[in-house]
Design a protein that fits this description.
CATH class of the largest domain: Mainly Beta
Strand content: 25-35%
Structural class: alpha+beta
Number of strands: 19
CATH superfamily of the largest domain: L,D-transpeptidase catalytic domain-like
Strand order of the largest sheet: 2-16-17-18-19-15
Number of helices: 11
CATH architecture of the largest domain: Beta Barrel
Shape: elongated
Distance between the termini: 75 Å
Length: 426
């Protein structure tokens, strides 16, 4: 009789511990009623919840939360048939076996291994659960994608804090969510400063090329497996990175090693890493030389009206700069540049002022045309506009065409140009 009285309470405690651990921080810790599993809960026939590997691992955790241990067992077993090298699935499977004997204090309580690796798997579980609990709001638009040029058919937006990459299509100038995937970023986080610091850079970059697996094998030999199905290099360091003295190279989008289905949220040397299946899916929309990759600490979501307002304001600011230049209104034109301005040639604001004053005074007429404009935003605490466009400049003494980039930052309630020069990519 004593055993019959104790076992249900032990099982209730087991379920409560699982609920506390598996529920993400943004969600309520306990939602009554919470039912204790019966004696045969682990051994009864279970239902496999089908879907992508991410959907299946989340469904497994949901089943544990609900006390449906047989469904959890069936789903994780099916997942491991589909992805036999999925480490998080193996960890959950081991826990399900261990829980038959006794409650566990946390995810991974039934496993033996290095604590840092177990912590990595716990973080992976958490970010995947948060994606399900807080999906991208399809009725809102990312503030970072302000203006899309007609030739930018798709844009990649990396949310480092959420370990998520979003793919947006250019729907007549408005970003439209296509899909999103779990990603890995740098071991030491973001905001790359120098070569080898194991951080992922934040900023606006462009896919520059594609290195398929045979090419990687020829170049890197046995080390090529680190990049999985292939790599898509991006244009780090960009113009602003160079101005600020940031160093390093070889920042890529790439796949995962064969030994694991997915890597931890922070496990790369600075690259953005996807599972091999997800990398192959994303690659369908990547066009070297054209596809932007916008890396941010976290995405800011705007209502359509708020996004439109910022979109219009950015284009109006760019047009006012162009108009002042074309009309040779030197004082108004120079008012668009901040005190710490640098040109691609290294000119500061005083030297820029002298040059433009002299050039404009010698012109009888000037025409400036801009097209193929894109404007992206980075830097959540101190935002930066990255404006890129084709520029055609004509005057009575000069005809010139170029692909130009302007970096703008807020200054006293207005936006001012911080750097100006030829675009290195995109």
């Amino acid at each position: 009789m004593a055993i019959k009285r104790v076992l249900p309470w032990a099982r209730l405690l087991l379920c409560f511990v699982l609920l506390v651990f598996f529920t993400p921080a943004a969600q309520p810790r306990l939602t009554p009623p919470w039912q204790s599993p019966h004696v045969f809960a682990f051994d009864a026939p279970g239902v496999v919840i089908q879907g992508s590997p991410e959907e299946m691992i989340v469904a497994t955790i949901d089943a544990v939360r609900a006390g449906r241990m047989a469904d959890a067992r069936a789903t994780v077993d099916a997942l491991l048939v589909k992805e036999p090298n999925y480490r998080l699935a193996h960890l959950v499977s081991a826990d399900l076996y261990a829980m038959r004997a006794a409650p566990l204090a946390s995810l991974g309580g039934g496993a033996i291994g290095p604590s840092d690796r177990l912590d990595d798997l716990r973080r992976e579980a958490q970010v995947r659960l948060l994606r399900r609990a807080d999906p991208p709001p399809l009725d809102k638009l990312p503030a970072q994608l302000l203006v899309l040029s007609p030739r930018q058919k798709h844009v990649v937006l990396v949310d480092a804090e959420a370990s998520r990459v979003y793919l947006y299509a250019n729907d007549n100038g408005v970003p439209r969510h296509v899909t999103d995937f779990y990603v890995t970023v740098g071991k030491l986080g973001t905001d790359k400063l120098k070569e080898g610091d194991q951080r992922t850079p934040l900023g606006v970059y462009f896919v520059t090329s594609h290195m398929d697996r045979p090419q990687l094998d020829r170049i890197y030999g046995s080390y090529a497996d680190l990049y999985g199905v292939g790599a898509w290099p991006i244009s780090y360091p960009n113009e602003l990175d160079r101005r600020e003295g940031r160093t390093g190279s070889g920042i890529w989008l790439h796949g995962s090693p064969a030994e694991t289905y997915a890597r931890a949220p922070q496990a790369s040397n600075g690259c953005v890493v996807l599972t091999n299946d997800d990398m192959q899916k994303l690659a369908q929309w990547l066009t070297p030389g054209e596809t932007p990759v916008v890396n941010v600490a976290h995405v800011e979501w705007l209502s359509r009206a708020a996004w439109q307002s910022r979109h219009d304001a950015a284009l109006a600011t760019l047009e006012n700069w162009r108009n002042a230049w074309q009309n040779r209104d030197t004082d108004r034109y120079l008012g668009f540049y901040d005190d710490e301005f640098r040109s691609s040639e290294g000119q500061d604001l005083p030297s820029w002022r002298r040059q433009k004053t002299q050039v404009n005074s010698g012109k009888n007429w000037t025409e400036v045309k801009l097209d193929d404009v894109s404007i992206f935003v980075t830097g959540n605490e101190r935002p930066m506009w990255v404006a890129t466009f084709n520029q055609v400049y004509r005057s009575d003494t000069l005809n010139n065409q170029m692909r130009k980039r302007l970096y703008w930052r807020p200054d006293g309630g207005t936006w001012k140009i911080h750097w100006e020069g030829p675009a290195r990519a995109g």
